[in-house]
Here is the input.
Amino acid sequence: MKAFQEIVYSNRKNHENIHEKIIANHQQIEGWFRNQWLKYPAPFYSSIDIRNSGFKISPIDTNLFPAGFNNLNSDFQSLYVTAVKHSLDTLKTKINKILIIPEDHTRNEHYLDSLGYLSRLIEKAGYEVKVSKPSITDNSKFKNINSLLEYDGFIPDAILLNNDLSAGVPSFLDNVKQVILPSKNIGWTKRSKTDHFNYYSDVCSNFSNLLGIDSWMIDPEFRNCGEINFKTKQGEDCLVYNAEKLFNIISEKYEKYDIDEKPFIIIKADSGTYGMGVISIDSIDQIKNLNRKQRNKMLSTKGNVLLNKVILQEGVYSFEETKESCNVAEPVIYSFSNFLIGGFYRTHENKANNENLNSPGMIFQPIPLNDICISPDLSLDIDSQINKYYVYGVVARLAILAAAKELFNLD
Amino acid sequence: MKAFQEIVYSNRKNHENIHEKIIANHQQIEGWFRNQWLKYPAPFYSSIDIRNSGFKISPIDTNLFPAGFNNLNSDFQSLYVTAVKHSLDTLKTKINKILIIPEDHTRNEHYLDSLGYLSRLIEKAGYEVKVSKPSITDNSKFKNINSLLEYDGFIPDAILLNNDLSAGVPSFLDNVKQVILPSKNIGWTKRSKTDHFNYYSDVCSNFSNLLGIDSWMIDPEFRNCGEINFKTKQGEDCLVYNAEKLFNIISEKYEKYDIDEKPFIIIKADSGTYGMGVISIDSIDQIKNLNRKQRNKMLSTKGNVLLNKVILQEGVYSFEETKESCNVAEPVIYSFSNFLIGGFYRTHENKANNENLNSPGMIFQPIPLNDICISPDLSLDIDSQINKYYVYGVVARLAILAAAKELFNLD
Here is the structure.
């Protein structure tokens, strides 16, 4: 059994409102979600990065090709296996063999651990699993025979992508009869964060009506710019213009809710980046004065694609930290379809509460037994771990629902 | 965290065959089950009593209105809640409110604990739950308005029976539009153990073909008699005749597999009895010489219905016991739909390994973390707890599948 480090609020602000509303209305919320899933089936799996500033709780990244499974609390393996079974059961299709198409970083040990754990979970759910190697950049082992994808002699019933398709949809996935999970249309080539957060805003607006809250409390403001070239500074005017607009909106909200903090904005690639190319600014001048290191950071995104579209997103403070070492922490919640399976805290000793924690040096802190997002405990304080996790579970599912709507319209 | 008492073999016989076959073919088995569930959806919930003599592993009772939820390992609550969600999700119907119709033993504290825990699990899954009280014998609070059942002002979307309907199907369940779980047709008024074990034999025959084993290794032989009156001894000839036949079959099998044990037979009501009215015999003479106490036992079944039909079933030794106190033990496995959620061992300090353990004085021993029936661990010994539980999970699902087929044909 692991020892768990307690995560506490570093700066406890007027968060009662949103927490309380969610806890008090949990039954209504569960009913609402159920109806949503009937219309919009959740994608096969996901991991959701969440930030909690007390006055605001938002997903900041919705990953539909999650890694990091190795960081989950292994005591809960039977729950994960059950959730995998559910996710595959709901397809109501005869599936026995599954081919996993992974990312290309074959030398990243953490990723390989995650991939190994994911494979074992699916195997334990009773499926035959094969992982393609060396993945999509080497297509020689993939064959398409009568619209059935075959890999190295293995003909799967379903293909599971654990590759975000940043490098494009490989041609061997064209004209394939087998079910492709979550979908070949939801990779970063076709998807953008702007699209996702548009769907998310829509979901939040419905959800907020249900609860009678200001949707800003769960929905980060954002703006997007067209083509930006950080080398030539082309498009910088647009960045400045949108950043000004954003700062104004955030400041107004901070004033309205009497929040004595400095607004900040996150600038990041509009398509997935693995934590690369993310900068945090708290004034317009910082955009004009981006130094060479920061500009280079925005150029070096995954697969060396020249970053061209960026999203400016309202920064959400993370006012949670590890109790003893006071390292800033943010929860990451995992799911298989609409079933939450818990997750962990990502912590970082060298980052501030307004910085991206998904970077080298991060440490993962699994969630203890039973505090697993599924239901609140009304007999406990709203700040209790179990109730906080329920709130995270709700926010995570709002993001998953947004992704489900994306998927519904893309497929 | 609980301390778990280890359960060990008291008499380790040539059980390798069936255990090994199941462990080695687990992937094929999982695929086979998946296809079965597509055709025959599992009933809402169940608990399965299993006996393991090493050379034979069989379900001896399949309860479709289970109690004993309070004996489950509460560390796994998130798994149970997830399984409840799955079981209700698969109905693909809009359900928010659930009425539970419980058993009538309102003074049995264990039962009330179980009922309370079951209600909380469903509430934690996000449903509004009401438990009818004082249950079906007092019908005054039930109303049927335009084919919608209403209880004390509560109009549920689904009705969950936690009452085995031994006393008959209450009239207020007639012409009800709401979904009734698992079904009003699967109560003991309409169902018999003979029916169930006929379906079970059929399931075992298919399963055994898949594995290339003698289905006797998982399927207890049985015979049924027509009307028996233990007071007047009417029908005793039939009992003797069938018992002789059964003893012959069992002896032949014991001889074939070189099993140096005394065959025994269980005589019990052909409809559910809560552990009442069960006797164990190991010779024909014992039928003829049933004493008054034993005869009275067969008369005092649940709800004081005069026992008339009995089933004679091959007795299965339980060669498992608690490590320290050497009390005989048998596993009880729980499910929501086709999802196993583990279970516990039922142990008894005053019972022998050929006796019914479901009687006053029994003690429950929860299953430790992770040993939860879902998947085997090929790196461990086949006798390891985790692999033994996987085997129990397979046998439990064979019984659930038999019940699913019953339901399929009854509804």
The mean pLDDT of chain A is 88. The longest helix of chain A spans residues 385-410. Chain A touches chain B through 41 residues (CB under 8 Å). The two ends of chain A are 43 Å apart (CA to CA).
